Amino acid sequence: MKHYLLIILGILQCLIVVQAIEHAPAKPINQEQLQTIVPYAVQGTVQTFTKTVHGGVQHVVIKSTDNASQIKLIQGHLQKRAEQYQAGNYAATERLHGAEMPGLAQLKKAKVDDIKVQYQALDNGGQIHFSTEYPQFVQALHEWFDAQAEDHGNPGIPDHDSHHSPAAE
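Structure tokens predicted for Aspartate carbamoyltransferase (169 residues):
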């Protein structure tokens, strides 16, 4: 009886270790890795992912507003990325985060018109607004945004939350 108890405890301990490994947080993206994909100076920017009722908004803004060349690079990059996302192309995200990134597989199943993707230039960078009326794609966008926020960090942008309340679109 004592041996059975030890065996059961050993099995439980193994299961706990396996569970911990499976649920370990993803390793955040390092700045050097991100820099190989984007044309602007990553260190000088703040990138955020804000979920909304129908999707979310990704912002990339510059920390120092007096660098017009970096702002143009951010805007060009986000505009290109928005066009790719609108066409259903998530290849750059997959290269950076991996094929197993939460929400990504579902997003790749969407038809071109299932998710609306809009780029907007901002004075200090740019944003991409994702929205859909389909619950499965809202869920996928939220999972994708959570994973992006975990990988990249998700600092607040001062005086910016007022026009992107999660309760409204």
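Residues 63 and 132 are 31 Å apart (CA to CA).
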